[in-house]
Write a structure and sequence with these properties.
Strand order of the largest sheet: 2-1-3-4-5
Helix content: 40-55%
Low-confidence stretches: none
Radius of gyration: 22 Å
Mean pLDDT: 93
Length: 299
């Protein structure tokens, strides 16, 4: 049985003991005051987060995958982060995804007991054919979820990179993972409701890991998401604005060039910045794994 007694995330928050007697403004004010502590907790883990970014980028560049593993809120946080990498950075869905205890149904409803199964985690990772080049990122506020611990243990056995994101110090997951990230956010506003501060911390860390990795891999130019996929009207406008802002071209020229490239933002930027042909831009980007800055230097 998982022991949660004594965990920081399970303690009672003295500052919010009377929250049920407050009006709505008082309730949200207390929540806001507690939320302010989250960024400070994450800041203390920046060296470990940076270490993880370097390690993930190295594996991903070799063809490895980002695989988040977790149960409940923690698993959903990882899955959401992975899903967003496709429209934002054109990362194929099969190269960044989440594994939830209980399967895809657990994204929308609680699957009781799934998080307690160590065998289920191994089965899930075997089904996606885990390799030594992959990155297994286990997320659990307590740091003691059997499913997530098992995912990290199996990742270690196969030689994959293993990272834990928890909100309790000296957890079992921290001992198993090769890199431990543990922002200690303290007692929750509602005792034990780790979808609150702990969940916010987990999202912040996951965002840093994935965004930092994408930056290192050249999927960001200046501070623009140049690998965005213009799959709807809003994103076409955003892509046009990005191209215009970077190259100085007017919106009409930017949009026309984007259309000429088959809606490929990097190609349009390289063409307009260097004056090269579409074929030259495509060739340079292929040679630099889609890195706009390196492609421009090459041309």
């Amino acid at each position: 049985m998982v022991k949660i007694d004594g965990l920081t995330t399970e303690t009672v928050n003295e500052a919010t003991r009377q929250i049920d007697q407050l009006d709505s403004l008082g309730v949200v004010t207390l929540i806001n005051q507690e939320d302010k502590k989250v960024a400070d907790a994450v800041e203390k883990e920046l060296p470990q987060i940076a270490k993880a970014v370097d390690a993930i980028a190295e594996r991903f560049a070799k063809g490895g995958r980002i695989i988040y593993c977790g149960a409940g809120t923690s698993g959903r946080m990882g899955t959401l982060d992975a899903i967003e990498l496709t429209p934002t950075y054109s990362v194929p869905a099969e190269r960044a995804f989440g594994l939830l205890a209980g399967g895809s149904d657990a994204m929308y409803r609680a699957v009781e007991g799934a998080e307690d199964s160590k065998e289920l985690a191994i089965e899930d990772l075997k089904n996606v054919e885990l390799t030594p080049d992959d990155c297994v990122i286990g997320i659990a506020a307590s740091g003691r979820t059997p499913y997530t611990i098992s995912a990290l243990e199996y990742g270690n056995q196969l030689g994959a990179l293993t990272i834990s994101i928890t909100c309790n110090g000296d957890s079992e997951m921290a001992k198993v993972a090769q890199i431990s990230i543990a922002p200690i956010v303290g007692a929750e506003v509602i005792s034990g409701s780790t979808r609150m501060k702990a969940g916010t911390a987990q999202k912040m860390v996951a965002n840093m890991l994935s965004t930092g990795t994408m930056i290192k891999l050249g999927k960001v130019y200046q501070n623009y998401m140049v690998q965005v996929q213009p799959t709807n009207e809003k994103l076409v406008v955003r892509a046009t604005n990005i191209i215009s802002a970077i190259t100085g071209a007017d919106k009409e020229t930017a949009h026309r060039t984007l259309t000429e490239t088959g809606m490929q933002v990097p190609d349009a930027i390289v063409m307009l910045e260097s004056g090269c042909t579409r074929e030259q831009a495509k060739k340079a980007l292929e040679a630099t794994a889609g890195n706009v800055r390196k492609a421009l230097e090459q041309i």
